């Protein structure tokens, strides 16, 4: 196979990935959404982040209840406190990274 085929495949994959991510923003600029739908959409980022957080805090095994990953849980506590006090994403991430690094060090 030629380099042209690989390049065409790469651009095709990029286009297929890019369109669903950009198209909703373009369409919502042209169309006015109802206020109830906008309120519903405002909860999506928080629910997605909560699902990601729970997935990283819980250990899942087939046939068993989820168990808590204690180092990640204890590193999450200071990050949560920093998040409530500052609302600064960079400080939250740095606190979580330093917290888990310190816990894994000991």
TrEMBL record:
It holds the Pfam family AzlD. Keywords: Membrane, Transmembrane, Transmembrane helix. The keyword Membrane applies. The chain crosses the membrane at residues 40-60. This is AzlD domain-containing protein. It comes from the Bacteria. The keyword Transmembrane applies. InterPro entries: Brnchd-chn_aa_trnsp_AzlD. It comes from Candidatus Enterococcus murrayae.
């Amino acid at each position: 196979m030629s380099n042209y085929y690989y390049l065409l495949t790469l651009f095709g994959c990029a286009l297929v990935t890019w369109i669903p991510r950009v198209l909703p923003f373009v369409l919502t600029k042209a169309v006015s959404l109802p206020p109830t739908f906008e309120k519903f959409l405002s909860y999506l980022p928080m629910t997605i982040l909560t699902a990601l957080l729970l997935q990283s805090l819980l250990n899942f095994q087939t046939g068993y209840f989820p168990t808590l990953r204690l180092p990640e849980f204890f590193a999450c506590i200071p990050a949560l406190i920093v998040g409530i006090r500052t609302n600064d994403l960079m400080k939250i991430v740095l606190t979580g990274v330093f917290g888990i690094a310190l816990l894994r060090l000991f």
